């Protein structure tokens, strides 16, 4: 299986508070009486992860964390990344609030080839931080992204976290980019959150021949889900379609049916249910089934969107495999399709589509 | 069963490209490696349609298309329209990008009575194209729609494809319509896409005593799903409610729960899941079940929204029948309702509601 | 079980028209041929309520209403409130279009402790109606709310019915409140529908230490579902989070997945599926299961949102219990969690979370 969007794993031991913070998209703890383990993802973790560490399924959180500490981060990471059963990972390297393993190290743990996804806003903020004129910004950013191409397989936009997904379909003019760059450069710590710049960056990636991943829908509280509906992106997706550049809509929950619609009607749109798959735990099959209502089977990919916790690479992969297999087997049982077609779709979704789009 | 919203069927042989284009709402092909047959609708077609042409279920696309070509369009159309098992069809005659059979011919193929639905924007564009003054536009359109009444059973608005569904609940004044008509008439090829005109047309239909069908939600990429949420239409629906004029919300996916809400709280609102039913294939029952969460059983209708491909008339009807029957039988099995009540609901939804609203 | 949001019950006999109007969120009857009993809630009522009145399940509406009239309102109310099996009720006392029982009387019927929820807009409208200057409005409202505290356990905002849920996260300044109060006081019959005032009222409740209930999503046609998406409230919820004040999102359908997201990412957000649970009838389990996809199990509560009809207190409680038990038992059957964990979650959701948040 190919995990076409994930981040690095934390390479150190975690205390209970850190572990719980890494488990879900909550940024601050809930009330003390509300355990993050009491949730779909918590129950899924307790079902599937303890056996990887030599405990019985459904171990209590305290016992699980004690065993995890006993084994140590290196061994825990090795076990979960290996258990995930991946052949390739595409790693977004632009988000590093803490020290995490780089793609080659992650790939070695997973026994998989590791490929890099360049985060567009990070490139722009690096360029802005290095000292550049407003007029020189566009050229320097463009060159930096083009220079990445030999070593990266895709680009990532986090417009959903900043300006929202309602990006225009027009390429911004040089004058518009220069004006927006001027505003960016006047900030003490330049932070891209301007519709023009997000859009400019997407076109830089398209021009460089890279598939563009978009954060869509579900994420932490900063994601502002109001502006994360993939339908808001339709003008830009249409414009990208005319160039043939693939647009990869990540996460999508709870707008995954809207994302499936876009994957049907636009030739260049691909979708996944990363992050949501492991957060929904026992409900992952319902999610994948809804995603596959309109999305053609050649347009759906797997990603974990795992960050930090080794468990998430394994849980994402395991829950996705079970969800897809369960959905496909249900159809075979009902006579809706043949076992042969089901196997073919499973291969497409688990790895074939990703290999084709990213040229792995 | 009554199909209360469909279009004509293509009366000619189709090559593989044309067939695939007609299968889903995609307007341009996806990447060459992504077959439209690898999708819920493709799998549903391969399950249910080959036997109608004398092949085994799950035939490969190539074999299916070869057999289809061998039989020829006339025979294929006859078989599928007949297999659909319809007693009546309401045919939207306002969308004819290609030559398709007219309602009487479609009705003969189906062995069903065929009724016409007049597309409001088409009437307005015809009037505009014939030469009229801005001041004379409203009267001429109104007269044209009134003149249709003896021969049509309903009207159709495609505001969702143009201005979006956020239509005001106010009747536009004569001055507003004249101003909007002036803008329309100045176009080289008049195309209604003005909120005032869409609204004016709806009121013309209401005044003529016609139920008004609204395209809502799912459609091709031009539909702009962002502006196709039925909740946007609530002011106009409320205003129509005060006159008693039925509003028929078509398609609705992925906003079918919102549509069901409107069907509960507004006395004149009716809903269906046309187009989505056959596109979701094996998931049709999940869709119909969600639609029927809030929508009263006396407010839900069947439509295929089939256009062009004979298979879609059959698939829509078959999948809807199975979905409704499956949902109702599940309730009987659980003791949620009686078999007698289930049968009564099945008759209402399959045909009774349509017969009552359209006076068939 | 704790019903953390309901209203009073009607204490008089009802004719068929009144009964049907009280059954759903429709304000006016549908066409005469469409019975409100032919719906999920109608079928659920006919399944579960007749036995409480000594009839067989699935009794015909006419027989049911005859038996109801025969027993009389006092006996009917006693039977259904008692059958609901509640230990505590939190009663919103601010909506009384008809004479209904007050919390103590409702509690006696139910054999449960009854607590009051103060409706914020009602307080503001009472103060405005008593004669106050614009400059004195804020202080008098604030004092009135603070004076409630010993006797109420929470406050309720109906911003969704008036200005919509897009409330700013900023506390309004005194000058802003005074200006808004001036506009309110100039109305003949003061009716709060101003974003500033709704927001001011929420902060009064927060400052008084009260959990704040928000109407979200599903309600009658006045609720304007377009502006009832809980994501619109995110700025205010974030601002409340910094104070620790609990925000209770009520109803939520069809935006319950969005509400579950907010319950995961914000420490102070709690959710329920009141009103929708009994309206969806046989589909209640699907609803609760979707709500529990992202919402931590320590953040989900039960409410009926029953108003007027005694049946709704019972139906809400029964359908919620069955839905939660069915969802939890399904996980136990699949090995997704243990029976012990399932029991623990059942207790949290049915009563523990409510007791903790409201300090019952």
UniProtKB/TrEMBL annotation, chains A, B, C:
Which GO molecular function annotations are given, in alphabetical order? hydrolase activity
Matching Pfam families, A to Z? Answer: Amidohydro_2
- Keyword vocabulary terms for this entry: Hydrolase
Instruction: Tell me which SUPFAM superfamilies the record gives.
Output: Metallo-dependent hydrolases
Superkingdom of source: Bacteria
Organism of origin: Actinomadura rubrisoli
Residue ranges occupied by any Amidohydrolase-related domain in the UniProt entry: 178-360
Q: What is this protein called?
A: Amidohydrolase
């Amino acid at each position: 299986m190919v995990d076409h969007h994930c981040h690095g794993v934390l390479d150190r031991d975690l205390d209970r508070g850190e572990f719980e913070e890494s488990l879900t998209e909550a940024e601050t703890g809930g009330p003390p009486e509300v355990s993050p383990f009491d949730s779909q993802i918590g129950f899924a973790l307790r079902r599937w992860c303890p056996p990887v560490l030599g405990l019985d399924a459904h171990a209590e959180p305290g016992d699980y964390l004690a065993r995890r500490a006993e084994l140590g981060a290196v061994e825990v990471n090795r076990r979960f990344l290996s258990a995930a059963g991946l052949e390739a990972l595409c790693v977004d390297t632009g988000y590093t609030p803490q020290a995490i393993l780089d793609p080659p190290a992650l790939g070695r743990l997973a026994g998989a080839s590791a490929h890099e996804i360049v985060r567009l806003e990070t490139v722009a903020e690096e360029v802005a931080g290095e000292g550049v004129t407003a007029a020189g910004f566009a050229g320097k950013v463009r060159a930096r992204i083009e220079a990445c191409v030999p070593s990266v397989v895709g680009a990532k936009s986090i417009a959903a976290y900043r300006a929202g997904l309602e990006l225009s379909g027009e390429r911004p003019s040089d004058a518009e980019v220069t004006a927006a760059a001027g505003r960016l450069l006047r900030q003490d710590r330049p932070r891209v959150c301007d519709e023009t710049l997000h859009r400019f960056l997407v076109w830089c990636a398209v021009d460089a021949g890279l598939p563009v991943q978009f954060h869509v829908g579900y994420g932490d509280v900063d994601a502002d889900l109001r502006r994360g509906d993939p339908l808001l992106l339709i003008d830009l997706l249409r414009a990208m379609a005319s160039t043939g550049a693939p647009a990869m809509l990540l996460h999508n929950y709870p707008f995954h049916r809207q994302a499936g619609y876009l994957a049907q009607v636009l030739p260049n749109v691909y979708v996944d249910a990363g992050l949501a798959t492991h957060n929904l735990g026992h409900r992952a099959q319902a999610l994948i089934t809804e995603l596959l209502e309109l999305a053609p089977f050649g347009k759906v990919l797997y990603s974990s969107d795992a960050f930090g916790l080794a468990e998430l690479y394994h849980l994402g992969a395991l829950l996705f495999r079970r969800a897809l297999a369960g959905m496909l087997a249900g159809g075979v049982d009902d006579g809706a399709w043949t076992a042969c077609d089901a196997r073919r779709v499973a291969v497409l979704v688990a790895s074939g589509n990703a290999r084709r789009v990213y040229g792995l």
